[in-house]
Specification:
The complex is a heterodimer of chains A (420) and B (121).
Chain A: E1 2-11, H1 15-26, E2 32-35, E3 51-53, E4 62-63, H2 64-76, E5 81-83, E6 87-91, E7 96-101, E8 105-116, E9 120-122, H3 125-128, E10 138-140, H4 141-151, E11 158-162, H5 166-177, E12 181-186, H6 196-203, E13 210-211, E14 214-220, E15 227-232, E16 245-248, E17 251-254, E18 258-260, H7 263-268, E19 292-294, H8 305-323, E20 334-338, E21 342-346, E22 349-350, E23 356-362, E24 366-373, E25 377-384, E26 390-394, H9 396-399, E27 406-412, H10 414-418
Parallel strand pairs in A: 1-2, 1-8, 2-5, 8-19, 10-17, 11-12, 11-17, 12-13, 20-27
Antiparallel strand pairs in A: 3-4, 6-7, 7-8, 9-18, 14-15, 15-16, 20-22, 21-23, 23-26, 24-25, 24-27
Helix pairs in contact in A: 1-2, 1-8, 4-5, 5-6
Chain B: E1 2-6, E2 15-20, E3 26-30, H1 35-46, E4 49-50, E5 53-59, E6 65-70, E7 74-75, H2 79-86, E8 90-92, E9 100-102, E10 112-114
Parallel strand pairs in B: 5-8
Antiparallel strand pairs in B: 1-2, 2-3, 4-7, 5-6, 6-10, 9-10
Classes of the chains: A alpha/beta (420), B alpha+beta (121).
Chain lengths: 420, 121
């Protein structure tokens, strides 16, 4: 078995892994390794051929492949090692990685620090419990995206899309441009889950109906999907009898959520947050296991890749410090908790010694509110909704004013904020 | 006439309200939070444009398709014609990101460019 010793091993060569590896190398880690199971770097960005990536980071509207290519080119200019078509089987809590590929067989990689950057996967029909037979023609939206944009197959001619998240909206446009008919996008929530720009450019531009507060309750067809039955739902998301209607289609795309891919983290014994389904991390992006860091969609599902890159750079640079034994132990540890109308906050714990960018999602949409971090800093938000992640940065100067051992992030009314 | 336009310049997605006169001129424009929103809404009312991103066939590449984009937005009404045109194209790998696949695409004054490197497979 081939054995390797590295300073920082990055698992996953998507946007998080690429940015983490570059930051680790810049941070002084001499031997940085990216382990990627695909035959090329770039991760899911390679199939996201639409534009709109990089507005914050590059002040340009790049396509997914273009965004990835910039990082891949940067990696190529360094001495960062890349192992492609290599599958990580196990990560130990002692930071040993077992991986396998068809060229070298088993690999044992000892790393001084590890960055988990495995990304996420799509929720499936099984997770939704849509009853009915199992005809061909039901795909997760990302699978259909891969077929169309990378492999060159159109999954069907007449489609219904369940879920108005960004991938669902993007696929509605993509299918339409490629000559298929998208009958409807069906969303269980009372509002579109994806970005407004995608509702405009992917649905309104092509006259595709968005059917809110409704879901697919049955699929029809034996060999191939022939139709789906949709129905309106009540507040508990239960179908309302009498509102059923059947839409003929040969394709159903499911765009119903993403789940961080944490089998490896679990195997290593990394503590997970039941809300994000990703690791619990501190302000250095370190998980509950010393020397194992996490970033990107494996940590929590992002909507903007720009934020993934930023978070990954943080993880990569602290991983390098850890590998070089330059990461100081925190004097104080403060738990971060989710208060009013906050679903989750990352990171889960802070030291108050370093600047922290908090990422969070709200539970429900609200207008004219204030995002408040522990009474230390607050910002006005005109409109918050669960599908749009919020972020706010606090400096150590501000953080150090905290008394007590928890920091609560809340959404409050402007009046309440004034009373802090 | 009142017209509502959702600004798509950034994720804030401002709801911009336009008051349109009899000659299709903009009388007032409100709801934008920055000047880019004003520029966008004006353009969206007078001559809406979209960037086209799609794929073209590629010979001898690691994938059968190459993702491409227009380097500038094109008139919204030209999207279908543009898709039919890209369906006729085939390029040879390897290709570098930014390579111009079609110059002055459909005489629109924009180029169709490769949006990634594609190695020979």
């Amino acid at each position: 078995m081939r054995k390797m010793d590295v300073d920082v091993a990055v698992i996953g060569g998507g946007p998080a892994g690429l940015a983490a590896a570059l930051a680790a190398r810049r941070g002084g880690a001499a031997k940085v390794l990216i382990i990627e199971r695909n035959h090329e770097l770039g991760g899911i960005l390679q199939q996201c051929i639409h534009h709109g990536f990089g507005l914050h980071r590059f002040k340009a509207e790049l396509t997914g492949p273009e965004y990835a290519q910039r990082f891949i080119n940067e990696v190529r200019e360094t001495d960062i090692d890349v192992l492609l078509e290599t599958m990580v089987l196990e990560v130990s809590n002692q930071r040993t990685i077992y991986a396998v590929n068809s060229r070298e067989g088993m690999l044992e990689i000892s790393a001084k620090a590890i960055v988990l950057a495995m990304g996420c996967r799509e929720r499936t029909r099984g997770a939704l419990r849509i009853p009915g037979r199992r005809p061909a023609g039901i795909f997760s939206a990302g699978t259909a995206q891969r077929y169309i944009n990378i492999d060159g197959y159109i999954p069907g001619k007449k489609a219904v899309i369940l879920g108005s998240g960004d991938i669902g909206l993007i696929m509605a446009r993509r299918l339409t441009l490629e000559g298929a008919k998208v009958e409807a996008v069906v969303e269980i929530l009372p509002y579109a889950a994806g970005l407004a720009r995608n509702v405009v450019q992917c649905l309104e531009d092509f006259g595709i109906p968005l059917i809110l507060q409704s879901t697919v309750i049955e699929v029809h067809g034996d060999e191939r999907l022939e139709a789906v039955t949709i129905a309106q739902v009540d507040e508990q998301w239960k179908p309302i009898p009498g509102t059923e209607r059947t839409i003929e289609c040969d394709t159903l795309l499911l765009s119903v959520g993403l789940i961080p891919e944490n089998e490896l983290s679990n195997g290593a014994g990394v503590q997970l947050d039941p809300i994000t389904n990703g690791p619990k991390v501190d302000d250095t992006m370190m998980t509950s296991i010393p020397g194992i860091f996490a970033c990107g969609n494996v940590l929590h599902v992002h909507d903007l890749v720009d934020n993934v890159s930023k978070e990954a750079e943080r993880a990569g640079s602290f991983a390098a410090q850890y590998a070089l034994q330059q990461l100081p132990a925190a004097a104080r540890r403060v738990k971060v908790t989710a208060g009013e109308n906050i679903r989750y906050v990352v990171p889960h714990e802070v030291s108050l010694d370093i600047p922290v960018e908090f990422f969070m999602r709200v539970q429900k949409p609200q207008e004219d509110v204030v995002l408040d971090v522990g009474g230390l800093r607050s910002v006005k938000e005109q409109f918050v909704k669960p599908s749009e992640m919020l972020n706010i940065t606090l400096t150590p100067e501000v953080l150090s004013q905290l008394s007590g051992d928890t920091l609560t992030v809340r959404i409050v009314s402007p009046k309440e904020a004034g009373r802090q | 006439m009142i017209k509502h336009i959702t600004c798509t310049v950034c994720p804030l997605s401002c709801e911009i309200t336009l008051e349109i006169g009899e000659n299709n001129e903009i009388i007032s424009l409100t709801g934008n939070r920055c000047n880019r929103g004003k520029v966008y809404a004006t353009k969206e009312h007078t001559a809406p444009e979209r960037t086209l991103t799609t794929t073209v066939r590629v010979r001898g590449g690691v994938h059968p398709l190459l993702p491409v984009r227009t380097d500038q937005p094109i008139p919204k009404g030209k999207l279908k014609e543009a898709m039919l045109a890209t369906a006729q194209l085939e390029v040879e790998a390897p290709v570098k990101m930014g390579t111009v696949i079609v110059e002055n695409f459909l005489d629109l004054g924009v180029n169709l460019v490769a949006s990634r490197d594609l190695e020979r497979g």
